[in-house]
Write a structure and sequence with these properties.
43% of the residues lie in helices and 14% in strands. It is of the alpha/beta class and 227 residues long. It has a 6-stranded mixed sheet.
């Protein structure tokens, strides 16, 4: 069976003018994951044959960190369907009377409370955020990456670098979870977390979700982040 690792990007720049940029910690997380993958391969783990990423900057930067740590020289295939939803557009579509700014007290919690509500309404078609696809099209874009792997890369071990939304969507698709569960999966995924699948030309199945084997050591515990 082929191995597929769905990898969430490293810590981005939450609260900054440009979120789509890895922080210094996000880069270190990515390099550390690459080092872990290299050690796994050296001890009989998967030899990685291909990499697919979304088209966002934080996806590319995460792959560059992984490549630095692992020594892999694979040229990634970019797949727009692995891009994240627009959380700002989602929250604006709720027509909230006051959207908190990152520096305000309680901003972090309120942001994710609003995001949870907006995701639920987007999934049911109640809101149509500006510039975003319908949720059914979002799902199709993410699932298309797995279909491509199954049809074109079935005998290969593949790294997939994406974001929490597409990864939770793929897990939900494989497990047939309701939207509420998919949202909760989404909001639990940690930076550079690995979700492992195995696949054949006929199907793919989930092995593990949201693991951080590269950050288990005590000296890396402070590197665990969610945003």
């Amino acid at each position: 069976m082929a191995h597929i690792h769905l990898i969430r990007h490293g810590q981005a720049s939450f609260g900054a003018a440009d979120y789509d940029q890895l922080s210094d910690l996000g880069h270190r997380q990515s390099v550390r994951l690459g080092e872990h993958l290299r050690a796994q391969t050296a001890h009989g783990g998967p030899v990685w044959d291909a990499v697919i990423t979304g088209t966002l900057r934080r996806h590319r930067q995460t792959w560059e960190g992984i490549a630095q740590g692992s020594g892999l020289t694979l040229e990634p295939l970019t797949w727009p369907g692995l891009n994240e939803y627009d959380s700002e557009a989602l929250i604006k579509a709720l027509r909230a009377c006051h959207l908190v700014q990152p520096g305000e007290p309680g901003a972090y919690k309120q942001h994710f409370r609003l995001l949870r509500d907006a995701l639920a309404q987007w999934m049911t078609g109640t809101i149509s955020p500006e510039g975003m696809p319908a949720y059914t099209d979002f799902v199709a874009g993410a699932v298309g990456a797995l279909t491509h792997i199954r049809q074109q890369l079935a005998d290969q071990n593949v790294l997939v670098v994406s974001s929490g939304g597409p990864i939770s969507t793929l897990v939900g698709h494989l497990l047939h979870t309701p939207p509420e569960t998919t949202i909760e999966l989404n909001l639990q995924i940690r930076n550079t977390a690995v979700t492992e699948l195995v696949g054949t030309p006929k199907r793919q199945r989930l092995v593990s979700f949201n693991t951080l084997p590269h950050l288990l050591a005590a000296e890396h515990q402070a590197w665990i982040t969610h945003a």
